[in-house]
Design a protein that fits this description.
By secondary structure, the chain is α+β, with helices and mostly antiparallel strands. It contains 5 helices and 7 strands, in the order E-H-H-E-E-E-H-E-H-E-E-H.
Length: 170
């Protein structure tokens, strides 16, 4: 399985939107609206494919900076993962785990130190097993309670480069 970026408003994006509608929204008797999708044009979209080039699922990421109280850093780069979805036929096959592990690897290489995501209650054990921690705040979207979760990424490329430079100086 391989996770690849897909462009907004392309046939692959449309296919992922259909999967999201089928798996995430139809069970809630809700719809992804044009307004929802218009807000995603700046976001990163990724699709997971199998060896037969079938799209198994995907996710959306939002890269952003936030203020922090650290004496060294004034801003922190984080990523928010949204709309993680796996086609019903491929759930419980390791596709979701592969997708999260691959996006984490990519984000580490890009120098991100933290990932946040939103989870339904029933998916919390899945994310906890992957090292995510539940945060205090919750919110409701489309009538469903969501939990904010986060994971610190260790060994980011920038951290490893700084560690290498410190060793070279000693």
């Amino acid at each position: 399985m391989i996770l690849v970026p897909i462009a907004y408003a392309t046939p692959a994006y449309d296919q992922l939107v259909k999967i999201r509608q089928d798996v995430l929204y139809n069970p809630l008797n809700a719809n992804l609206t044009i307004e929802d999708l218009e807000l995603e044009y700046k976001d990163g979209h990724y699709a997971l494919y199998d060896e037969h080039y079938r799209m198994l699922g995907g996710l959306v990421i939002i890269r952003k900076e936030e203020e922090c109280d650290d004496e060294v850093e004034t801003k922190r780069r984080i990523v928010v993962i949204r709309q993680v979805v796996v086609c019903k036929n491929f759930q419980r096959t390791g596709a979701g785990k592969a997708m999260i592990q691959q996006i984490e690897s990519l984000l580490k290489k890009e120098g991100y130190k933290e990932i946040r995501l939103y989870s339904y209650e029933k998916a919390i054990p899945f994310y906890t097993n992957l090292g995510y921690q539940k945060m205090e705040r919750t919110f409701n979207e489309k009538g469903v309670k969501h939990y904010r979760m986060k994971k610190k990424l260790t060994g980011t490329q920038k951290t490893e480069q700084a560690d290498g430079q410190k060793k070279a100086e000693n």
